[in-house]
Amino acid sequence: MSAFDVINPATEQVVASVEGLEVDSTDEAVARAKQASESWRRVAPGDRSRLLRRFADRVDSDIENLARLEVANSGHTIGNARWEAGNVRDVIAYYSAAPERLIGQQIPVADGLDVTFHEPLGVVGTIVPWNFPMPIASWSLAPALAAGNAVVLKPAELTPLTAMRLAELALEAGIPEHVFQVLPGKGSIVGQRLVDHPDVAKIVFTGSTEVGRQIMAGCAAQVKAVTLELGGKSANVIFADADIEAAAATAPYAVFDNAGQDCCARSRILVEQSAYEAFMAEFEVAVKKVVVADPADETSEMGPLISASHREVVASFLPEGSPIAFRGSAPEGPGFWFAPTVVTPESSVHRLMQEEIFGPIAAVMSFATEEEAVRLANDSHFGLSGSIWTRDLGRAIRVSRAIESGNLSVNSHSSVRYWTPFGGFKLSGLGRELGPDAPFAFTETKNVFFSTKE
Ligand code: NAD
Predict the structure, then answer these.
(1) CA 340 – ligand 1 centroid, Å
(2) For residue 154, what are the β-bridge partners?
(3) For 368, which DSSP code?
(4) Which residue has its alpha carbon closest to ligand 1 atom 35?
(5) Torsional sign, CA 191, 407, 355, 320
(6) Could you tell me the CATH number of the domain that includes residue 321?
(7) pLDDT at position 2, please?
(8) What is the pTM of this model?
């Protein structure tokens, strides 16, 4: 075991010291999970449901505490952090109904009865990034538990605290010991071991495309099931016929929320030429209004970046001579602050238009036709999210069908609802999370034929 410090990104103060697991202790945790999964899968569906409902209730009664922990550990604004803790409660409550609904099929056959069963996988390993530690943990944890699996969860090194608290709440709710374990530690040690461990039946990975590729290769070696939720560079496409005022007023929050550290950030803003000037004038006012302040302050709309090194990476996207159009403000002094910044690169091949920055930098370009808008929106290796602003219904349908992305919204920026499927096209990932079918992704379908011949 080796201890590592958890830092408050708004103050640079140490919040906690956490023991990281090594390979041996990870193996021990997987062995405990495997054993626990044997009895958990046999818990009657109604009882598993009841335990998950209790877990959701415990999270509900701990929302303020979880939110404060996230503010201190991740620099999320208190408003966002409360929403995130509430999302965990809702996700667990939603999937608490799943154990009684893991319904198989009865398929007509001659001379017998044919039925399918959804068998739990056993032990599910879930590897979580630092940008939304709580919701992302719950999106795999809840449906996997509901389907009768044990879960071993590796939080990001920078942000383990809320996941560790969730494990305590699960125990308090009566979820049996070792059914849900949190394993803090390094990705290269604990995460890699979960990928390589023969008793981990599936990996759910959310993180960078680069690490996702390695994880998929590791899983391939064992033909292990894998879900990948990776990066994004989503487009916010604004047509001249749209409500430009609303599009401009909401665009900052669609990219600067969580300081831009959001896989769904609409970081490429594409505006129809005839509305470009009007949009930019209103957008500038809106960007300058974003309240970048101490995330514990109730009025704060954007906190700091997660770490000093991440701030360096974000800053490296703006060398001398970058096409900066305007910037918002950020506090001075301690904390990994970075002011919201709007850039206007001339071409879609510019790295500001192509690479995921994962910080508060938005790139704006104009387009002339609907065809060009679609071409620019699709000119990306990623395909996670995006928005389309238009009052023309036919265009909204055409463009939303043409954009290569897993989650789109028209005349809004909503992206993740736990009861609808979520995931990416292209390098943004593989597989889907959330929605009504998620528990089935944590099962194997078994077909059994019963002969009725005498
Ligand atoms: P990351 O890939 O560096 O790390 C993610 C997790 O993987 C961490 O827990 C890390 O410890 C672990 N890890 C690192 N190396 C590993 C290895 N070799 N084996 C196993 N595990 C390993 O990503 P990050 O910097 O924490 O998060 C930012 C990235 O996550 C961005 O690219 C963002 O777009 C993406 N993301 C995607 C979604 C989505 O749903 N598509 C959601 C949130 C974040």
Answers:
(1) 23
(2) 127
(3) S
(4) 207
(5) negative
(6) 3.40.309.10
(7) 84
(8) 0.97
- Residue whose CB lies within 8 A of the most ligand 1 atoms, among 206, 222, 227, for a mutation test: 206
Q: What is the pLDDT of residue 1?
A: 64
What is the 102 CA–ligand 1 centroid distance (Å)? Answer: 30
Distance 448 CA to ligand 1 centre (A): 39
Average pLDDT for the chain? 97
Cα 211 to middle of ligand 1, angstroms? 7
pLDDT digits (tens, 9 = 90+) for 95-137: 999 999 999 999 999 999 999 999 999 999 999 999 999 999 9
User: Is position 25 within any domain?
Assistant: yes
**Residue 415 pLDDT exceeds 80:** no
Kindly report the CATH number assigned to the domain that includes residue 53. Answer: 3.40.605.10
Beta strand 225-229 with 341-343 is: unpaired
Amino acid at the residue 191: G
Pocket test for ligand 1, best of 208, 226, 313, 422 (most atoms within 8 A of CB): 208
Q: Beta-carbon neighbour count of residue 210 at 10 Å?
A: 10
pLDDT at position 424, please? 97
Distance (angstroms) between ligand 1 centre and the Cα of 221 equals 20
- The DSSP annotation for 76-104 comes to --HHHHHHHHHHHHHHHHHHTTSGGG---
Does the pLDDT of residue 420 top 80, yes or no?
yes
What domain range is 69 assigned to?
2-230+428-451
Whether residue 422 lies inside any domain: the answer is no
Q: Whose CA is nearest to atom 32 of ligand 1?
A: 208
Nearest atom, ligand 1, residue 130 CA: 26
| One domain for residues 65 and 184 | yes
Mutate to test the pocket of ligand 1, among 215, 263, 427 (most ligand atoms within 8 A of CB): 263
Closest residue by Cα to atom 9, ligand 1, is 156
Cα end-to-end distance, the chain, whole Å: 62
Q: Which of the residues are catalytic?
A: 229, 263
Which pairing describes strands 150-154 and 180-182: parallel, antiparallel, or unpaired? Answer: parallel
pLDDT, mean of residues 265-280: 98
